[in-house]
Amino acid sequence: MMFQNFEVLSSPDQAAGRIARLRKGFAASAVNAIAVPRSDEYLGEYVPACAERLAWLTGYTGSAGSVLVLEDKAHIFVDGRYTNQVRAQTDPAVFTYQDSVATPLASFLEASGLTGLRLGIDPWTWPSSEVTRLETALKAIDGQLVFLPRNPVDAIWDDRPQPPLGAVTIQPLDLAGQLARDKLAMIAETAARAGAGAVVLADPSSVAWSFNIRGEDLPSTPHPLSRAIIPASGRPLLFIDKRKTGIEAEAYLTQLADLEPPSGFDDALVALGKSGASIMIDPAVAPHAVSMLIEQSGGTVRAAPDPARLPRACKNAAEIAGSARVHRQDGAAMVRFLAWLDDQPPGSVDEIAAASRLEEFRRTTGQSMQMPLKALSFDTISGAGPNAAIIHYRVNTKTNRRIEPGEMLLIDSGGQYVAGTTDITRTIAVGDVPHEQKRFFTLVLKGMIAISLLRFPEGTRGLDIDPFARIALWKAGADFAHGTGHGVGSYLSVHEGPQSISRRGTQELLPGMILSNEPGYYRDGAFGIRIENLVVVREPQTIDGGDRPMLGFDTLTLCPIDKRLILSDLLDPAEREWLNAYHARVRAELSPLLSDDPAIEWLEAATTPL
Questions:
Q1: In this structure, which of 27, 38, 157, 344 has its CB flanked by the most CB atoms within 10 Å?
Q2: Count of alpha carbons within 13 Å of 211, Cβ hemisphere only?
Q3: In this structure, what is the dihedral angle of CA atoms 360, 366, 372, 378, given to the nearest 10 degrees?
Q4: Residues 138 and 117 sit within 8 Å (Cβ to Cβ)
Q5: How far apart are CA 567 and CA 570, in angstroms?
Q6: Which domains are present in the chain?
Q7: Burial track 67-99 (b if 16+ CB lie within 10 A, e otherwise)
């Protein structure tokens, strides 16, 4: 059984009737508008089938966005990654399209002129930080934010799937690198130092990291949907359905915390409020309903960063070693795939066949190397020609097309293994690709190499280095509409904060953080290019002749970059030196894993010096 399903999951024609049904509930809720986000009650990027509310309502299946439904109009807000996708998946007779970066929902409301608007939301699906922005915007137009007692989509979703009950597993100490009791003690100490009575961990990835557990509730992110309350003193409370835990996991967890059903979370928050305690909550990752329950019960909310988030982002030695191990294995699977693809007659392979075969290689390589593929870290993006220009394209049986001679295949993929998470993009030539596409491929490569070679002082943030990935494109009058890099978890979410390399990357880059390095270029209706490696921030090192240590990146991903698409005269000597050294390392580290595989001949040819 494959992890990825290529069937069409939504239809543009489903929205009109569902939007009409949603509007019928306005009067009973005393609202004249409702906003529905992509996120669920855990505010996750990836959500279970029972929480695919935005997709069910609108037809749009991207991993970020929201819809504002007014009495006579409906607006969908998405960022630049999904501009093409949202138009392909939704009915333009029902929706208008808004840029969520240039005009976020709150800014749209403030400028709308919709005086007196009463906007209904489910406070479990919006973070407090966004609720504050919405309240401010509505106040400016004499409007009001109305907190609905039930999610408005659930009220009309007759065949809504049941919540998931994926099995919980224990993350071994040799992979976690730190005992759960020590992590929990650190969090409790953080609360005590702040004078707070407890910390609410609302992010399931923070719960999974803190307790050294993983789960199967989501198709791509191996954390169990759960929450926790960590008091400054006393036993933690873990809110998780015991049907997920099994005997071994339950025995392990009861040594660390009192286990409570998810339904008991509200009552526990009310009890905290009644105690008069000050409770630490991260307003960026906790549902606003959490703060509401505490404050309405008499407690005080102390806004503070999730105390597990930064330690989770800064991988320890065991996690980095595990990531290096899975990247060698994943690199071997990629080489087997690329060798197979090159062996097929141009025009004989379609996008689904490429994605399916890559998953197969990941699975069989994992079995042979004793590190089984547990899941894909996201649905593989396999786009050829014009489909590759759709930044987060998800191929299905309706959009699937053959990779024709003279086109490029953009394949962005990754795996979840117990020792780590991978994410890699390669853009591959099929036949003789036009010179113009090679030029842009080389400009993108220059940006990727610039990040790879970068040295930077302590205190540097992602937004400080993001331009280095774009300079070559900027000089050519081009750019790309996504960040250069996102954080990556350790057998957790493939998209992890707070670190990023982007215009909004305000987090200081710290040793141990794993990030993607993935500049790109996309020409609508023609082609798309992205080259992605994962990198880890290394400890500051002294530079000969320098007067202060500098941080830098070590590359984790091991896979050849298609030399057929490189115009070598556009690379400077340092860039060629980096590429040749990288390919020599790829060949040295992957060859032992492919010694009995015909793909080794392809690897040797693909990594010869430029």
A1: 38
A2: 39
A3: -50
A4: yes
A5: 6
A6: 12-147 (3.40.350.10), 169-312 (3.40.350.10), 314-606 (3.90.230.10)
A7: bbbbeeebbbbbbbbbbbbbbebbbeebbebbe
